[in-house]
Design goal:
mainly beta, 3-stranded antiparallel beta sheet, 5-stranded antiparallel beta sheet, 8 strands, 1 helix
Length: about 100
C-alpha cells in the first residue's frame, strides 16, 4: 500500500467540518506536521515517507497509518469519516460529520 502524500493529507483536511491550522515553516524547513480540530478535539498528523502517525492533542494516543481516506457510514453510521489504514486494514475511524449537521 502506498503512503498517503502530504499534499493528499492537506486536501483531505480542507473538508468543511475540519478546522486545520496553518502550516508554519521555521526558517524554510520542511514541516511534516498537520494540526486540526474536529468537534473541539485536537489532532495532529505527523507524515514521513514510510509511515504516518495520528496523535491526539496530548500524545496519549498515537496511531501509525499508511493511508487515509474520506469515507462514509461504516462503522460510525456517520455522514463522513476520516478512515485510516495500516497494512491495508482499518486502524482508526475519526467521525468528522453526522447526518444532522
Amino acid at each position: 500500500m502506498e503512503i498517503t502524500t502530504l499534499e493528499q493529507i492537506d486536501k483531505l483536511l480542507e473538508y468543511h467540518t475540519i478546522n486545520a491550522f496553518p502550516v508554519l515553516e521555521v526558517d524554510g524547513e520542511f514541516n511534516r506536521k498537520r494540526e486540526f480540530t474536529v468537534e473541539g478535539n485536537e489532532w495532529r498528523i505527523v507524515w514521513y515517507k514510510s509511515i504516518c502517525y495520528l496523535e491526539n492533542n496530548n500524545r496519549s494516543l498515537i496511531i501509525p497509518f499508511e493511508q487515509v481516506k474520506l469515507t462514509n457510514t461504516w462503522p460510525t453510521r456517520s455522514k463522513m469519516n476520516l478512515q485510516f489504514y495500516y497494512k491495508g486494514e482499518v486502524c482508526c475511524v475519526l467521525k468528522i460529520e453526522d447526518f444532522d449537521q
